[in-house]
TrEMBL record:
Taxonomic lineage: Bacteria, Bacillati, Actinomycetota, Actinomycetes, Micrococcales
Main location: membrane
Residue ranges of domain Major facilitator superfamily (MFS) profile in the record: 1-183
Membrane topology of the entry: Multi-pass membrane protein
Matches recorded under Pfam families: MFS_1
The protein's name in its UniProt record: Major facilitator superfamily (MFS) profile domain-containing protein
PANTHER family with a match to the protein in the record: COMD, MAJOR FACILITATOR SUPERFAMILY
Natural source organism: Agromyces marinus
UniProt keyword Transmembrane helix present: yes
């Protein structure tokens, strides 16, 4: 959950050109899935007392949603991205709060505080590890894709030449594309 919250915003802003506000609004399908599943499955667990199947299903949906998110490109249809986000959100909603509910229901009252704090502690540690792993994967994939994308690139316009040189102020001095050769 933490990693997708961090990197979805970057995806929407950098790959899709959204503003920060639009980026936040574009994550609504994931939040709706998470909120809806959390409420619905929490009510079902409280009503019937069975939780194991919901937790396993939630873990599988989370895994499926995460795998689907790895297939995103800059031009993936937003409807498809929404389905992927909803799937991930529903899986997280089934697991996150209901895990706390299960721990609280299966723990003696005298140890309730310790059990709840352990759930939150390990959730925070796992979130940190998840953000770190996804960040390193993103960095290595962006580096590889950038190198592959520029491998066969030859600048043909003055803007492309200047952009590659890192300056838009001075004209290129190394080729004849930007300025004609001296006579």
């Amino acid at each position: 959950m933490f990693a997708t919250s961090v990197f979805l915003a970057q995806y929407f802003q950098l790959a899709r050109g959204a503003t920060p506000t639009e980026s936040g609004l574009m994550t609504i399908p994931m939040i709706v899935g998470q909120m809806g599943a959390s409420i619905l499955i929490g009510a079902l667990i409280s009503r019937f007392g069975r939780w194991k199947g919901f937790m396993v299903l939630g873990a599988l949906l989370t895994l499926a949603g995460t795998i689907l998110m790895t297939t995103l490109t800059y031009d993936t249809d937003f409807a498809l991205v929404s389905v992927y986000m909803f799937t991930l959100g529903a899986g997280l909603g089934m697991v996150m709060q209901n895990l706390t509910l299960v721990v609280q229901n299966d723990t003696p009252v005298s140890q309730l505080g310790a059990a709840s704090s352990n759930v939150n502690f390990f959730r925070s540690i796992a979130g940190t590890i998840g953000v770190t792993i996804m960040g390193s994967q993103l960095a290595s994939r962006v580096t590889a894709h950038t190198a592959d994308g520029f491998a066969d690139f030859t600048p043909t316009t003055p803007d492309e030449v200047e952009a590659l040189q890192g300056s838009l102020a001075a004209p290129c001095r190394t080729c004849t594309t930007c300025r004609p050769p001296s006579a």
